[in-house]
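User: Just a sanity check before I run the rest of the batch. Below are the C-alpha cells for the first item. I only need the designed sequence back.
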C-alpha cells in the first residue's frame, strides 16, 4: 500500500520548504525529508508522530478488510482526508484531533464504504425528507468552490466537516448538497454553512454556529435554499 508520504498532497495554503528534522521521532514517512508545515509539525511532536504511525497501521488494516469494490473509494477518501483535513491544520492540537477522528473511522474496518441514508423531519412540518450523509465529507469541495467563483464571492472552501445530499429520489433528478465547511478568505478562516446543486444553480452560504454541527440545522438550511427546481 502507498505510504502516507506517497499519499501526501501539498496544501495550496502551505508555504513549502525543506527542513532537516531529527529522526528520533518516528513517523510514517522519513522525517529527515519532511517538507511543508504539516509534516514538520508531525515530526516535531512525539504524540502527533505516534498518531501518524497509528493511523498508518489502521489504514493498512482497513485496506485489507474493505471489499474490492470499495478499495478505490477508501483510497480517495484517505487522499481527501490528507489534503482537506490534515493539511489545513495550523497547530498540533488540530492535527491530533484530526488523527484521532480519522483513526476512529478506519478501525471500524468496514467492508463497504457506504454513506448513511435516513428520513428526517423538517421544521416546516411536512413529510420526512430523504437525507444522505457522506462518510467522505470532502467530495463536494471542488463544486462548492466553482459556485463561489460563479457567484463572484471571495474566498475558497478548504475543508468540510459535514456533507449531506437531499436527493429528489428519481433518476436524473436534482440533488441538493449542503456542508459545514471552512472558508479561507485571505488570511481569515471562518466556519460556514454552504449549499448548491448541479442542475438549477442554487447556491447559498452563511456563517455557521456551533448548533449547526448537529446536522439538523444543515438539513433545514439546505432544504430551504437549495432544494427543488
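Assistant: Here's the designed sequence for the first item:
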Amino acid at each position: 500500500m502507498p505510504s502516507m508520504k506517497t499519499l501526501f498532497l501539498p496544501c495550496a495554503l502551505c508555504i513549502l520548504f525543506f527542513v532537516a528534522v531529527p529522526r528520533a521521532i518516528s513517523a510514517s514517512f522519513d522525517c529527515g525529508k519532511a517538507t511543508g508545515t504539516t509534516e514538520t509539525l508531525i515530526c516535531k511532536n512525539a504524540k502527533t508522530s505516534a498518531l501518524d504511525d497509528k493511523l498508518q497501521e489502521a489504514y493498512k488494516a482497513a485496506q485489507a478488510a474493505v471489499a474490492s469494490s470499495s478499495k478505490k473509494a477508501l483510497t480517495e477518501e484517505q487522499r481527501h482526508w490528507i489534503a482537506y483535513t490534515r493539511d489545513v491544520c495550523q497547530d498540533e492540537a488540530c492535527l491530533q484531533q484530526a488523527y484521532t477522528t480519522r483513526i476512529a473511522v478506519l478501525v471500524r474496518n468496514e467492508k463497504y464504504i457506504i454513506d448513511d441514508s435516513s428520513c428526517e423531519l423538517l421544521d416546516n412540518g411536512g413529510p420526512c425528507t430523504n437525507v444522505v450523509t457522506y462518510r467522505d465529507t470532502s467530495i463536494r469541495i471542488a463544486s462548492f468552490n466553482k459556485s463561489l467563483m460563479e457567484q463572484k464571492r471571495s474566498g475558497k472552501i478548504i475543508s468540510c466537516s459535514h456533507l449531506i445530499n437531499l436527493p429528489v429520489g428519481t433518476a436524473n433528478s436534482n440533488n441538493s448538497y449542503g456542508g459545514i465547511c471552512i472558508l479561507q478568505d485571505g488570511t481569515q478562516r471562518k466556519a460556514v454553512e454552504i449549499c448548491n446543486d448541479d442542475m438549477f444553480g442554487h447556491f447559498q452560504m452563511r456563517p455557521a454556529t456551533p448548533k449547526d454541527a448537529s446536522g439538523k440545522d444543515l438539513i433545514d438550511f439546505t432544504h430551504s435554499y437549495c432544494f427543488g427546481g
